Amino acid sequence: MTDAEKLHETLKRIQEPKGYFFAPDAKRVSEILDGLLENKKRFGYMACPCRLALGDREIDSDIFCPCRYREADVAEFGSCYCGLYVTRDVAEGRRTADYVPERRPPRF
Questions:
Q1: pTM beyond cutoff 0.90
Q2: pLDDT value at position 76?
Q3: d(CA 11, CA 108)
């Protein structure tokens, strides 16, 4: 089992009981998980690969996966910003997720 597959199983076990499901696009989910693992190697924490991590733990803390914005994004749009987590309805194909705008405030 690859590291990404292990991460998938771990996150699924932890997040599904909380109402967060992986997106139905398995290829996209795999790419995001690979990005999380790459960021963990690079920075020492799993920063969202869909956002710019600066390598400063304090500055990046809002984008540690699951990021600070996930709950509001999933509730409002059916998906988090990067598309890793979705509602049950999106995961099961009963609806599609809406476009998710960036909620993270600009840093510069």
A1: yes
A2: 98
A3: 32
